[in-house]
């Protein structure tokens, strides 16, 4: 026979269970990813992501922009890992262009919940960025031969056409004069573990990428089983299509 105290205890437990199982409580238990870490590509720094940054921050995300040196895969992964270590929870890791190679390696961190490739390289283990570039016959225009220090730059004559399409002449000129070279070492460094094999993958494919071969982008996206979003624009479309690119990053954060 149950005592009054036992009955009260059972009732209290039932109330507690119903409270925990309420829609509001269940929603609180499935907290969305709120940390975003962005890795820029070659020939530009993280400041080009300012428009996307503002949208994400306004939507409540904590955004970290990695100023990776584009000097080697090891160095850029180290810079990315430093940023990931500072996160207070899981993070969406975003990479543009060469940054895609970086996040493929750095994305193995247990802090990374998903990967977003924006007009980016997606190498497999044992592949370098150069290996991918050489799989297609049509090579991008305007990449100059390495200088005596092993640095690779983009040519002025084709810079706006291939890299800064959609930007004004003044903006393109500024981007050209502030470009950060990619080293031969970075081009030839090989990924050892491909994070896209065990993390959800999202990809943004521009409609007119004149820097990375678009057929190659299709091949890489398919191999990585990426959820692809097609957006009108060129290689640096995150600058002039910031809202659309930010929407893909937020979809990754929400697991959509």
From TrEMBL:
AB hydrolase-1 domain boundaries:
36-247
Xref: InterPro entries? AB_hydrolase_1, AB_hydrolase_fold, Sec-Metab_Biosynth_Hydrolase
At the top level, the lineage of the source is Bacteria
Residues spanning the signal sequence: 1-27
Pfam families the record matches? Abhydrolase_6
* Keyword annotations of the record: Signal
Its recorded name reads Pimeloyl-ACP methyl ester carboxylesterase
Q: Which organism is it from?
A: Mucilaginibacter terrae
Lineage here is: Bacteria, Pseudomonadati, Bacteroidota, Sphingobacteriia, Sphingobacteriales
């Amino acid at each position: 026979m149950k005592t009054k105290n036992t009955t009260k205890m059972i009732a209290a437990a039932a109330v507690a269970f119903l409270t925990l199982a309420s829609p509001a409580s269940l929603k609180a238990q499935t907290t969305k990813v709120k940390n975003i870490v962005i890795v820029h590509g070659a020939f530009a720094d993280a400041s080009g992501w300012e428009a996307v940054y503002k949208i994400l921050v306004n939507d409540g995300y904590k955004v970290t922009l990695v100023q990776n040196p584009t000097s080697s895969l090891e160095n850029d992964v180290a810079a990315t890992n430093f940023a990931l270590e500072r996160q207070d929870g899981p993070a969406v890791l975003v990479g543009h262009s060469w940054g895609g190679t970086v996040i493929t390696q750095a994305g193995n961190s247990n802090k990374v919940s998903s990967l977003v490739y924006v007009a980016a390289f997606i190498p497999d283990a044992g592949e370098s960025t150069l290996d991918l570039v050489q799989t297609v016959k049509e090579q991008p225009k305007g990449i100059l031969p390495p200088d005596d220090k092993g640095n690779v730059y983009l040519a002025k004559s084709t810079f706006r056409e291939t890299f800064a399409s959609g930007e004004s002449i003044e903006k393109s000129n500024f981007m050209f004069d502030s470009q950060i070279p990619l080293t031969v070492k970075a081009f030839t460094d090989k990924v050892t573990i491909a994070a896209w094999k065990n993390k959800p993958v999202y990809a943004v494919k521009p409609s007119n990428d004149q820097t990375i071969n678009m057929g190659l982008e299709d091949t890489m996206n398919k191999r990585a089983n990426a959820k692809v979003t097609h957006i009108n624009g060129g290689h640096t479309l995150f600058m002039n299509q910031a809202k659309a690119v930010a929407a893909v990053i937020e979809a990754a954060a929400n697991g959509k």
